[in-house]
Amino acid sequence: MAPGTPDWLLERIILGELPSAPLAAARARLEREPGGAARLARLEADARRTLERHPPAAVAAEVARRDHRARVLAEATRRAESQGWHGLSLSVPVAASLALLFMSAPEEQPEPSASPVPLVVMLDTVRIKGPPRLRVHRQGAGEPELLDEQARARRGDVLQLSYVSGGRRHGVVVSVDGRGAVTLHHPATLAGSTELGPGDAVPLAHAYELDDAPDFERFLFVTSDGPLDVSAVLEAARVLARQPSEARTRSLPLPDTLGQTSFTLEKVR
Predict the structure, then answer these.
(1) Mean pLDDT by groups of 10 residues along the chain of 269 residues
(2) Could you give the CA distance from residue 221 to residue 171 in angstroms, rounded to a whole number?
(3) Which of 89, 116, 159, 192 is buried most deeply by CB count within 10 Å?
(4) 133-267 in CATH: which number?
(5) For the chain, what are the domain ranges?
(6) Bridge-based pairing state of the strands 216-224 and 170-177
(7) Separation of alpha carbons 126 and 129, rounded Å
C-alpha cells in the first residue's frame, strides 16, 4: 500500500508553496487517498483559526516592536561599554521566528500597589518654565516641603514627585537606591502610557515612601518626543544599579536622542 501524503506536503499545499504543476498533481493525489480530502479540510480550518487569532498586521506590529526594543537595548549596551562598564550586558529578547513569538510566555508587568501611598497635595502654584526636570516634596506636619538636590532624607519619609515636561511629550521616571533596587514611578506599569502632561509641574499619581536602603535615592527622568519603551528604560536602570558607586552620578546607558535628568537625595539614619 502506497504511503499517504505527508503532513509537511499538506502544509505546502495549503500555503500554495509549490509550483502550479506539482501543486495540481499533489492535490489530485490527495483527493484519491482515503480520507485525504478530510485531512486537507482539517488543516485548512486550523490555518484559518491561526490567522484569526494572530492577524498578519498584529504579527508584523509585534515583530516591529520587539525589533525596536532590541535595537534600543543594543545601543544601550554599546554606550555602556564605551563608558567603561565592562563585564555588564543587557538582556536583549529577540523573536527569532513567528513560532517562538507565540510560544514565548507573556511578559510580566508590575501591578500597582494594593495600598499605594496617597497623593500629597501641594499648595504652591508657581508657574515653572525651562527644561525637563523633577521636583520632590516631602510630606510633613504642615505644608509639603520642597526639597533641594542632595537634601537629606530618611526611612519613612513620604515623597511626592512631580515632573516638568519642558516641552517633551513622553517620559519615564525610575529610581535607583543604594541597595541597587530599581523602582518604576511613571508610568505605573510597563504597559502604561508614557505621555506627559504639559505646563506646570505635574504630580505623579501616588506618593512614595522611602525604605531603609542606605546611602542615596536617585530619581531619573527620561524624556522623548515620541513614546518610550518602558522596559528598555528599566533594563538600563538595572544596569546602572549594578554599580552603586556609579549609580549616584552616571546617566542611564540609553541612546543620546533621549533626554535625561535626575534628582538625588542623601539617605541618613
Answers:
(1) 64 69 78 80 75 65 61 60 49 37 39 47 49 92 90 94 94 95 93 88 90 95 95 94 89 93 95
(2) 7
(3) 159
(4) 2.70.50
(5) 7-53, 133-267
(6) antiparallel
(7) 10
Q: Output the DSSP codes for 26-85.
A: HHHHHHHSTTHHHHHHHHHHHHHHHHHHS-HHHHHHHHHHHHHHHHHHHHHHHHHHHTT-
Indicate the SS3 state at residue 24: helix
What distance in Å separates the CA atoms of residue 85 and residue 72, rounded to the nearest whole number?
17
Rounded distance between C-alpha atoms, residue 114 and residue 105, angstroms:
25
Residue with cell 494594593: 114
Secondary element (H or E) of residue 15: helix 7-15
C-alpha cell at 123: 499648595
SS3 assignment for 206-263: CEEECCCCCCEEEEEEEEECCCCCHHHHHHHHHHHHCCHHHHCCCCCCCCCCCEEEEE
Residue 218 CA to residue 29 CA, distance in Å, equals 70
Distance CA 81, CA 112 (A): 34
Q: CA-to-CA distance for 78 and 22, rounded, in angstroms?
A: 50
